[in-house]
């Protein structure tokens, strides 16, 4: 990692100088921009806020439609059963096949994302998803059902990976928490809220096929918008060449303007290295001295952009793919490198498990709702079951913007108290604080169904569950982006594999488990297991920095193999 990325010497990846405390006494400290942007106005980090918001709005709409395409199929199952004769066993198998496809999709397609860039993947995936929506609407055989479902889910697996890569490209560390919360919110719109209009369309005179025809139109419009207006967010910061599959000629840290070898020789003073008699002021003074040795930084209020550099013309901004120095086969190693990352960097594996657990909790609730609310004493219709998605949406919509803003402001405050130093683990306190709400929501929902409590109680429990899993779902992504920026693609592929691996297992195991232990015992066991997983955040808060220090050599080795990031 170069000093352009503002990593501190002697510190692990992810530890950055976030607050400028070197101003004159009484002056207001400033937030240091990380990653440090170039002076090029074409750098996405230097885009205007409006331009960034427009870019992310495209990505958000993309996320909503992809999640809708993958999730709303269950709303049409009743008509598929009566009109086409598909048994519910076949329909469940198609759902399981879809979750398995989501699990392997990132592994299969990540080389394309790294080789050809963000814009290429968004545009091509939208074209494929539009075709899959048409195929869904023209379903007549089991082969149609399985084929369209598997292909759309394989391609849909890229949505989570690509959005995080885009966030890392465009936004600074102190902004990522909020942007990831927005991503989580729009994903919930697609997965939970889209089923409501789909249910009404299915039960109307239009019929279930028009669910897919309307989605085809929306995907087609978005494809045209991306093709003509969406800008590539990848920006090449350092040059590298490939000779016989190896990286050569990459810009070294010592050759970066403003940086020299003596910077690399600075020994970072940490609280552990201070004697008992040393004060906290001396620790902060040492940080000040290190900051004076580092290259000039940019802050929120003081930016350095060279507007003599010409802006890219319209056609160049909209090139379908980007030039990369390596052949395609070189990027194929990323199809297995995610497993290497999770093996050598435990923090990545834990965050994948945490994110997967939060997603699994939601899947368990959705599955149980569909089975129990249709029976007495509730006797819900399919449309009524779909309306329960409002509870999930309200829970997520309430928490997501709150947790995003709060985490971004909290890390600035905590970094200030830490001598201006930001540690990615600072965000994880909010996940710990959400654990009691998770226990309350899961038990209220599960035990409420078991004891046949009134449906508003079930809805409140469902809403609390979704409220409580939002910090784990969004902040786990932000933590990985902040701590392991240069290998974020591999981290996210691993996260997606674990996340949908859990989902695939639960699709097959949930009904037999309930039959064996009963609904109440199943929910108690799930709550306790997930509570232990949530408690792992405390261990990461306490020992996460040590893990990053210990794993730093392997991290930099893996980062050197990220050709797109050796820039």
Would you write up a description of this structure?
The chain has a single domain, classed as Growth Hormone, Chain: A (Up-down Bundle). A hairpin with a 2-residue loop joins β4 and β5. The chain contains 21 helices and six strands. The N terminus is likely disordered. The protein is mainly α and 567 residues long. α14 packs across α20. GO terms for molecular function: transmembrane transporter activity. Pfam families: MFS_1. It is found in: Membrane.
Compile the SSE list and pairings:
Layout: E1 16-17, E2 19-20, E3 30-31, H1 49-71, H2 77-83, H3 88-116, H4 118-137, H5 142-156, H6 158-170, H7 173-193, H8 195-203, H9 209-229, E4 241-243, E5 246-248, H10 261-264, H11 280-293, H12 314-317, H13 328-331, H14 334-344, H15 346-372, H16 382-387, H17 389-417, E6 421-422, H18 429-450, H19 455-483, H20 488-517, H21 519-559
Antiparallel strand pairs: 1-6, 2-3, 4-5
Helix pairs in contact: 1-5, 1-6, 1-7, 1-9, 3-4, 3-5, 3-14, 3-20, 4-5, 4-9, 6-7, 6-20, 7-17, 7-19, 14-15, 14-20, 15-19, 15-20, 15-21, 17-19, 18-19, 18-21, 20-21
Protein name: Major facilitator superfamily domain-containing protein
Organism: Neohortaea acidophila
Domain Major facilitator superfamily (MFS) profile: 52-545
């Amino acid at each position: 990692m170069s000093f352009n990325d503002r990593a501190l010497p002697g510190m692990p990846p992810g530890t950055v100088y976030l607050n400028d405390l070197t101003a004159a006494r009484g002056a207001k400290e400033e937030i240091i921009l990380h990653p440090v942007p170039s002076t090029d106005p074409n750098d996405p980090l230097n885009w205007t806020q409006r331009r960034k918001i427009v870019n992310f709005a495209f990505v958000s709409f993309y996320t909503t439609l992809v999640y809708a395409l993958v999730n709303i199929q269950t709303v049409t199952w009743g008509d598929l059963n009566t009109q086409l004769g598909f048994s519910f066993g076949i329909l469940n198998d198609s759902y399981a096949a879809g979750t398995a496809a989501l699990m392997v999709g990132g592994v299969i397609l990540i080389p394309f994302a790294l080789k050809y860039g963000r814009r290429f993947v968004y545009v091509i995936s939208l074209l494929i998803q539009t075709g899959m929506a048409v195929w869904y609407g023209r379903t007549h055989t089991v082969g149609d059902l399985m084929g369209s479902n598997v292909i759309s889910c394989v391609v849909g697996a890229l949505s989570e990976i690509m959005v995080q890569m885009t966030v890392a490209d465009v936004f600074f560390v102190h902004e990522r928490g909020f942007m990831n919360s927005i991503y989580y919110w729009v994903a919930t719109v697609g997965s939970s809220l889209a089923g409501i209009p789909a249910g009404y369309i299915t039960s109307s005179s239009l019929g279930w096929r028009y669910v897919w025809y309307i989605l085809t139109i929306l995907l087609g419009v978005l494809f045209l918008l991306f093709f003509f207006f969406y800008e590539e967010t990848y920006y090449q910061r350092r040059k590298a060449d490939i000779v016989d599959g190896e990286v050569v000629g990459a810009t070294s840290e010592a050759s970066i303007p403003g940086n020299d070898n003596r910077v690399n020789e600075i020994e970072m003073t940490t609280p552990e290295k201070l004697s008992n008699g040393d004060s906290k002021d001396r620790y902060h003074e040492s940080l000040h001295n290190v900051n004076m040795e580092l290259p000039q930084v940019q802050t929120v209020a003081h930016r350095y952009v060279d507007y003599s550099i010409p802006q890219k013309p319209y056609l160049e901004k909209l090139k379908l793919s980007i030039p990369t120095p390596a052949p395609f086969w070189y990027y194929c190693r990323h199809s297995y490198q995610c497993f290497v990352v999770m093996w050598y960097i435990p923090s990545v594996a834990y965050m994948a498990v945490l994110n997967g657990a939060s997603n699994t909790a939601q899947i368990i609730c959705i599955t149980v709702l569909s089975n129990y609310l249709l029976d007495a004493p509730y006797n819900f219709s399919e449309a009524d079951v779909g309306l329960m998605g409002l509870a999930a949406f309200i829970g997520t919509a309430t928490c997501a913007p709150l947790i995003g803003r709060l985490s971004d402001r909290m890390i600035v405050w905590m970094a200030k108290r830490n001598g201006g130093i930001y540690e990615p683990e600072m965000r994880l306190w909010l996940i710990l604080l959400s654990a009691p709400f998770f226990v309350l929501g899961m038990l209220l929902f599960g035990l409420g169904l078991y004891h046949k409590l009134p449906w508003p109680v079930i809805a409140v429990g469902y809403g609390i569950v979704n409220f409580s899993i939002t910090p784990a779902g969004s902040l786990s992504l932000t933590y990985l982006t902040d701590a392991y920026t240069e290998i974020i693609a591999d981290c996210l592929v691993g996260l997606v594999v674990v996340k949908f691996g859990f989902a695939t297992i639960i699709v097959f195991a949930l009904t037999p488990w309930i039959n064996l232990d009963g609904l109440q015992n199943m929910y108690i066991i799930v709550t306790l297991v997930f509570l232990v997983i949530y408690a792992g955040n405390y261990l990461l808060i306490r020992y996460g920095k040590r893990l990053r220090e210990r794993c730093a050599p392997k991290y930099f080795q893996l980062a050197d193999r990220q050709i797109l990031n050796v820039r």
